[in-house]
Structure formats: structure tokens, C-alpha cells
Design brief:
- The complex is a heterodimer of chains A (717) and B (156).
- Chain A is of the alpha+beta class.
- Chain B is 37% helix and 17% strand.
- Chain B is globular.
- Chain B starts with a strand and ends with a helix.
- The chains are: A alpha+beta (717), B alpha+beta (156).
Chain lengths: 717, 156
């Protein structure tokens, strides 16, 4: 908390911000109750009018510190120029700090609005009492309460002492959405000034007095362990302070990161690589392929799929596959820990500080409230940092060396010990009647269990999730529809990866639908439209299919669907369309314009996106997440993959695991359907339809159907 | 172990008892506490650690401290006194950053490009930044910010 706050204040010193920022003269805030108004855990108003907004979700680039602050500030009628944000640490007042599932804004929307509205109502009440006027005649605006009949006004700061004595209303009135001033606009990132001036504090930037740096030699093969360690050469490296075995490997502790890495390089370790020593990607695929024939869970079953398939005039089948994928965030895993007098502090770029707190407490055998987790800015999360492994490792080492210590992962460590997106296969079968209408649809998803969320247990049906996202919430109206799931025990570490199970399943579903449309001689957009009436079930709700049709139509209209593409010399061009509904809420469609060269090289020129994600909180953030999701989806579709050789991850840099570069970034256009619904999340949603939109465009360009990701030039040459 | 003198952000800095092969990156981050220069890959591939050495963009993870000695090094912290370099301003105006971790390196690379000569077209910009990784995919806005920074310079 201290670090991020300090970093924020420094950002103010750097200037150049859209925000004017307070630099407290004494470096601290007023603490007495009379000096500030803090009606709940989410905000504080100081006597000088400066407002502190508390953010309980982790900032990893999705802009959550800005969007949550905008929600609070708007409802509070605060002056945006007088707010600062503070990062929360886990404690009883923060119920859910887990930053995953694109849920931060959606889950905070009502909660934060209510909290800020309560504060606004109390400030209004305080002004009305001060003036002895009817509260209904008072108005809040930009950090002031105004009394129009008499033209009087009082700043929020002046109202602090009285407001602080008033009861907190249980059901404050919320603003009408037409009165939003920040929400729905382009709000520049609150952390922007700190980032561009190099003052933003990420996990690796934490510096604690007396701290040491450490690198850990971990067995490259999961399940292996050190058989023999010769640390003599490592100890001789200048700057190395010690070599310490911990549960995850052998830590080399040093005065700086370079000495820690150099010392680790000098370690001689003979690994007992264990049962996975010969594991390969091919062997992992063999296990998947074997399991795919025997689905273990039925997630959705409507009508009678088998009977409808048997009665179909035409039956089509296809198998789609994706690959293991690393997260490869630019900031490698790291954490800093300090243990003093039975209390532990952890500084971590974590998406899940409550898990870090819980696991650190369990490791140390102390109560969770004895563990303070400081959430730093995160140099890319994408699901990797929902795991606490890299943080508890630092805690374990800090206990062993009795000094504050930062564990630094090299880029190779980060690839080698990732919690990978597992490869998966989707087996699809459709039955068509004589008129080309789909009468039956079977969707089987087979993938590896996500070890990040706990041990594999095939008998447990509730945890982990056994629903093939994108398959069981298939949005199309098909009378006989079945979605099945097979979970395979994973010998390697696996975990959540931006949009988790949606990318492989949406790739398969949207491409297979495209196949059927072409087979039936129908336009893929029109074919989808005809399947989008009525509603489909999601959790305990119904999703109106016409909303997806609206989004598809908008993307198609803006993307020039059906109009000729400008020819490109020596290249074949095509357009593709794909869409998805994420967890029954955010609806999104992409139209991709692609060209393919003679060598099978794919260029994506333009992506036009339409979405209905409910109320937009920060338009700049939303557009940024489309850009980001498209880049992510294109890397998934066209760039690197993670492979396993001799039981270990073969890739170690962005050279052998390439991600999209600036020269490959397409033009992007974003169009929003204003539906008036509450915000429904947007960090992952643009990812899933990217790969199928591109693959469908490739088919339009070349007549070649791609069923495996990532797409290689050899597939198209 | 040796002693080296480097000019960092206009200040003469001495580093005592350093491994001559210690990359400038770690000297900046761990010895001088200038953590704005980021560690992304350590093998010169991602560009997050880009700083200026005598005005040229270099990857500080690939410059051993002995090679930086007696040279003039500028980090993101020293690019401008108040974070007001045309690139920094353009980056804010275009609201470029997502996680932001690659951006100091991107800005340093762009600033060197702008200082050296006027890039003729977008292709040249792209070529210069195509060896930088942004996993968040902020490339659309980096392009826009670069164009804005270039236009600002023309207007001067």
C-alpha cells in the first residue's frame, strides 16, 4: 500500500498529468476522525478537500484503478482533479480482491456506487444542516454542495467535520446515468504519469531497507528434485551471501540481482527429474487424444442429439486444436518478503492478494491477519498471477535467511515455470436437414486440468469448472444440442490464461459454423443471424440472442461485410466474422480483413469490433482492451506456442516464443451498442473471437480451412 | 572487482566493487535504485531495458558496466526534468500505457529516434520499434503517440 501510494504521489511530482495531485507537506494524511470523513472502506475526504479512493482490485494494465476510481468519483460528485487512489491490502473490509474473470468492474459497479452515493448524501445532509435548509434544495457538483435558491456553496472539505458525525444511509439514491460526467467518457489512466516517467512501482521495483536479492534453481522438469548440489562455485561468486535450499529448489541469495543470477549459474545441481523426464508435447497430445473418445461430463444437453444426428440428411464432423501457451508477461515473476517479530509483509505483483495472504500464513503457521500483502502494479498478469507460488517462495526464503528478500525470476524461469494454458481439442459434429438447417450439434472439449486451482479429481464435478466455456453457452438456436467436457490430469503446471477456455472452444465453434455455412452455400453472417432468435440459458438466466444479432450486424456493417476488398498485389484477401457471448453477459463480434501471400504468410490488416458490454465506464480503457485483446488473440492464432521437450518447456525468450509486434498490428475500429445494462466486463472478452475471425477470413481468401492453432505458413502455402 | 565511473542522468556516479560484466541494467536498478529501466528478458530481445548511451538507444541488459564506464547514460528518469519530453507528453495524450512495463523502453527508443533524425514514414517507426515487445498490445497507440510527438517537433 505504501509503495503504490508513494509511487502515485511521485507521479504527481512528475507532472504532465491530467490530474493535479496533492503532495502532502508532512508526508502523511490527517488521522483524527474530525480531520477526515471516511464513511466506508472505499473513500476518504480530507479537510482540504482532497479525496482518497481505495482500489481493491489489482492493476495489471486493464485500467482497473482508473475505472473503479471513475465510478466512485462520478457517484460522489468529486472533482476528478482532487482525487488520488490508494491500493488496498487484504483485510476483513475487502471481501473479494481476486482480479480475474473480467469481473472487477461488473462486481464493483453497484457496491462502489452505493458507497460513494452514501458519502455524497451525507455531505449534502451536512450542508443542509449547516445552512438550515431543505436538503432537497441542495446539489452536489464537482466537490461542492450548492444551494441554488441562495447561491451559497460549501466545499466537501469544509463539510468533513459535520459529515463525519452523521449516520451512513443504508439505501442512498444513485445518480441517473444521464447525469454521469466521467463514466462513459475517455478517462486517461491514473497511473499514466508515473509510468511514462519511470516512477511507477512494479513488484521488481520494491526496495526494502536491508533487503537481499535471490534467484532460485528449480528443477526444470515438474515433479523433479535436486539429487546433489555443489554450491562451492556459487558461494565463490562475488556478492553471493549464501545458498539456501527451499522447498521449490535451491536459492542463491546475494546483494544484487546480477550476483544472484551469476551465483545460480555457478551452482552445480544434479537433478532427479522424476517421472516426467521424457515428457513431450506429442506425449501430452497422445493423452488428450486418448481421453477425447470418452467424455466425462455433460454440461448441456437439449433435445436428443444422437437421434437427430441419426436422422440428419448430412452429418459433418471436425476436430479443432490449439496449443500450450505461455503467459509471457513482460515483468517476470517476482516477490519481496520481510518477516519481523511474527509478522510478515509481502510485496507482490499479484492478481490474488488474498490467496497470497492465506498461503503465506499457512506456510508460516501464523494467522492471516499477521500477513500484510502490498499489491504493486503488475507488469502483465493475464491469469498467471492468480497463482501464489512465486510469492510464497519469497516468504519461505525470507524466513530462512532472516532478512527481507526479493526473488527475481529470469525470463527463462518465467517460461519454464509458467502455469500454462493447456492445449485442447474440440470435437464437433453437426447434423443438417435437407434444407441445410442445423438440427443437431455435439461439442466435446478435452483439455488438461488447470493445476493452478488445485489437484486433479475426476470425481469432483463442481470444482474445477467442468463447463466448456464457449461450448456449453453456445448462443445459437439448435434444437438438439449437447456440450461435453473431459478433464485430463496434467503432469505439467497449468492455469488460467486470458479468457481461459473460451479461446479454443470459440475458435472451434465459430469456424465449424463457418464451414457449415459455406457447405450449405450460405453467407456466414446471414447463417448466424438466422440462428439468433429466442434466448439461451446461462447459469440461472436467459440470454436474449437478438442482442448478439445486433452486435454482429453492427460489426458487419462497419466492417464492410459483403463489399469487395481492395486487391493486394500477389496476395489473396478475405473477410471473416466471428462472435461470442462471455459468461452470458458481454457480447462481442469481430470482422477480420486478412491477406495471404504465396508463401502462406498471413497479414491481418484490419479488425472491426462491435460490442455490447453494458454501461461503458472508461471508453479509452474499453478501446484499449479491444486493441490488447486483438493483439493477444493474434499472437495465439499466428505466433508462438509452448512446447515440451524432455519434460521441460523448450522456449526461453521472446525469440523462440514470439508475440505480435508493432509491425504486425492491424488497424482496429471499435463500435459500442448502448444497451443501458450495467457494465459486464471487458478484459478478456475481445480475445476469443479473434482466432476464428482470422481463420474464417483465411478460408474466404484461400479456400483452406485451418483447424489447428497457431496457424503456420506451411498450412496455407 | 573494479570501480567504474558513469555519467547517469547528468550526474557522475561511481560504482564500487562491481563485476565488470555486470550489465548496466542491474547497476542502474540495484546499485543506483533507478528502477524505471525495466528487466524484461535479460538477453536483448524485448527492449524493456532501453536507455541512452551517448544519445543512442541501447539495451542496458547487453551493456556490461565496463563498457558503460566513462559514457553518458540517460534513463527514463532523466529523459526530462518533469516527465515533459515530447514523447512522454504524447504517450499521456494518447493514453498509451496498459500494464506500462514496456513503456519506458519504448519511450527511450522513440526519443532516440526523434533526436537523431526525422523518421520519413510510419514504416521506419515500426521498423525501429518492431524489436520491442509489448505483451499488452498497445502498438496502435504507440504509433499514434509517435506521430503526435513527431508532429509536435515539426510545429516547433
Amino acid at each position: 500500500m505504501i509503495a503504490t501510494r508513494r509511487q502515485f504521489l511521485k507521479a504527481g511530482a512528475a507532472g504532465g498529468a491530467a490530474l493535479a495531485l496533492r503532495i502532502p507537506l508532512l508526508g502523511e494524511e490527517p488521522r483524527t476522525r474530525a480531520m477526515r470523513f471516511a464513511p466506508n472502506q472505499w473513500l476518504r475526504v480530507a479537510r482540504d478537500g482532497w479525496i482518497t479512493l481505495v482500489i481493491a482490485r489489482s492493476e495489471m494494465g486493464q485500467g482497473v484503478r482508473t475505472s473503479l476510481a471513475a465510478i466512485l468519483a462520478d457517484e460522489l460528485e468529486a472533482d476528478w482533479k482532487t482525487v488520488s487512489v490508494e491500493q488496498a491490502s487484504p483485510g476483513p473490509e475487502y471481501e473479494d480482491m481476486n482480479t480475474g474473470g473480467s469481473d472487477s468492474v461488473a462486481a464493483s459497479w453497484a457496491l462502489l456506487r452505493k458507497a460513494a452515493a452514501a458519502a455524497r448524501e451525507m455531505l449534502l445532509e451536512a450542508a443542509a444542516r449547516t445552512w438550515k435548509v431543505d436538503r432537497e434544495a441542495c446539489q452536489a457538483a464537482s466537490g461542492w454542495v450548492l444551494h441554488a435558491p441562495t447561491g451559497r456553496k460549501l466545499s466537501y472539505g469544509r463539510l468533513v467535520p459535520l459529515a463525519a458525525t452523521l449516520p451512513v444511509p443504508a439505501q442512498p439514491a444513485l445518480k441517473d446515468s444521464k447525469d454521469f460526467r466521467l463514466i462513459g467518457t475517455r478517462v486517461p489512466r491514473i497511473d499514466g504519469p508515473a509510468i511514462v516517467s519511470g516512477r511507477a512501482v512494479y513488484g521488481l521495483d520494491i526496495r526494502v531497507p536491508g533487503m537481499l536479492f535471490a534467484a532460485v534453481a528449480r528443477c526444470p522438469v515438474p515433479g523433479g528434485k535436486a539429487a546433489r548440489v555443489d554450491a562451492s562455485k556459487a558461494k565463490a561468486v562475488s556478492g553471493v551471501r549464501g545458498v539456501v535450499p527451499i522447498s521449490g529448489g535451491i536459492a542463491v541469495v546475494a546483494g544484487d540481482s546480477w550476483a544472484a543470477f551469476s551465483g545460480r549459474d555457478a551452482l552445480r545441481v544434479a537433478w532427479d527429474e522424476g517421472p516426467n523426464a521424457t515428457l513431450t508435447t506429442e506425449e501430452l497430445w497422445r493423452r488428450l487424444d486418448e481421453a477425447a473418445a470418452h467424455p466425462t461430463h455433460v454440461s448441456r444437453n437439449e433435445g436428443d442429439v444422437d437421434a437427430a444426428l441419426a436422422a440428419a440428411a448430412t452429418r459433418l464432423t471436425a476436430t479443432y486444436r490449439d496449443a500450450f501457451q505461455a503467459h509471457a508477461p513482460l515483468e517476470p515473476m517476482n516477490a519481496t518478503a520481510r518477516i519481523v517479530a511474527g509478522r510478515c509483509e509481502v510485496w507482490a505483483p499479484t492478481q490474488n492478494p488474498q490467496r497470497v495472504q492465506k498461503e503465506a500464513a499457512a506456510l508460516l503457521g501464523i494467522a492471516p491477519d499477521k500477513v500484510t500483502v502490498h499489491v504493486t502494479l503488475i507488469g502483465g498478469g493475464f491469469g498467471r498471477r492468480l497463482s501464489a507460488d512465486y510469492a510464497t517462495e519469497a516468504v519461505e526464503l525470507a524466513r530462512a535467511v532472516k532478512r527481507p528478500v526479493q526473488i527475481v525470476w529470469s525470463r527463462k524461469d518465467d517460461f519454464e515455470h509458467d502455469r500454462l494454458h493447456p492445449a485442447g481439442r474440440v470435437d464437433l459434429e453437426a447434423g443438417l436437414d435437407g434444407s441445410g438447417r442445423i438440427t443437431a450439434w455435439s461439442h466435446r472439449f478435452t483439455t488438461f486440468h488447470l493445476s493452478m486451482f488445485g489437484a486433479f479429481n475426476p470425481d469432483e464435478v463442481e470444482q474445477p469448472d467442468v463447463n466448456p466455456w464457449g461450448g456449453y453457452d453456445n448462443p445459437y438456436a439448435i434444437p438438439n444440442l449437447r456440450a461435453e467436457w473431459t478433464d485430463v490430469e496434467s503432469p505439467i503446471h497449468t492455469g488460467a490464461w486470458r479468457a481461459v477456455f473460451y479461446p479454443p472452444n470459440v475458435f472451434a465453434r465459430e469456424c465449424f459454423l463457418d464451414e457449415i455455412a459455406h457447405r450449405a452455400g450460405r453467407d456466414p453472417l446471414d447463417f448466424r443471424r438466422k440462428l439468433l432468435s429466442g434466448d439461451f440459458p446461462f447459469a440461472m438466466r436467459k440470454v436474449d440472442r437478438s442482442e448478439l444479432r445486433t452486435v454482429l450486424d453492427l460489426a458487419a456493417a462497419k466492417g464492410g461485410w459483403g463489399t469487395p476488398l481492395a486487391p493486394r498485389a500477389g496476395r489473396r484477401s478475405g473477410r471473416g466474422i466471428a462472435c461470442n457471448v462471455y459468461h452470458g453477459r458481454t457480447l462481442l463480434a469481430h470482422v477480420a480483413e486478412v491477406s495471404v501471400g504465396g508463401a502462406g504468410d498471413v497479414r491481418v490488416h484490419r479488425i472491426v469490433t462491435a460490442t455490447d458490454c453494458g454501461q461503458v465506464v472508461n471508453l479509452s480503457g474499453l478501446e484499449g482492451q479491444v486493441e490488447s485483446g486483438v493483439a493477444w488473440g493474434l499472437s495465439y492464432a499466428l505466433k508462438g506456442e509452448t512446447t515440451i521437450r524432455d519434460g521441460r518447456v523448450a522456449e526461453s525468450t521472446y525469440r523462440d516464443f514470439p508475440v505480435l509486434g508493432i509491425d504486425e498490428m492491424p488497424e482496429i475500429e471499435v463500435h459500442v451498442v448502448a444497451s443501458g445494462k450495467p457494465p459486464s466486463g471487458f478484459g478478456e472478452q475481445p480475445v476469443p473471437p479473434v482466432a476464428p475471425a482470422v481463420a474464417n477470413a483465411i478460408f474466404a481468401a484461400t479456400g483452406k480451412r485451418v483447424r489447428k492453432l497457431p496457424i503456420r505458413p506451411a498450412d496455407l502455402a | 572487482m573494479a570501480k567504474f565511473v558513469i555519467t547517469v542522468n547528468g550526474r557522475l556516479r561511481t560504482i564500487e566493487s562491481a563485476d565488470p560484466d555486470m550489465p548496466l541494467l542491474w547497476v542502474l536498478r540495484d546499485r543506483f535504485r533507478l528502477t524505471g529501466t525495466k528487466f524484461g528478458c535479460g538477453v536483448g530481445v524485448c527492449g524493456a531495458c532501453t536507455v541512452h548511451m551517448d544519445g543512442e538507444a541501447v539495451r542496458s541488459c547487453q551493456v556490461p558496466v565496463y563498457a558503460a564506464a566513462r559514457h553518458r547514460v540517460t534513463t527514463i528518469e532523466g529523459l526530462s526534468p518533469e516527465g515533459r519530453h515530447p514523447c512522454q507528453r504524447a504517450w499521456l495524450e494518447e493514453d498509451v500505457a496498459q500494464c506500462g512495463y514496456c513503456q519506458p523502453g519504448m519511450i527511450m527508443a522513440a526519443a532516440a529516434l526523434l533526436a537523431r533524425r526525422r523518421p520519413t514514414d510510419e514504416k521506419e517507426i515500426e521498423a525501429s520499434l518492431s524489436e520491442h515487445v509489448c505483451r499488452c498490445g498497445t502498438y496502435t497507440r504507440i504509433r499514434r503517440a509517435l506521430r503526435r510527438a513527431m508532429a509536435g517537433r515539426e510545429g516547433r
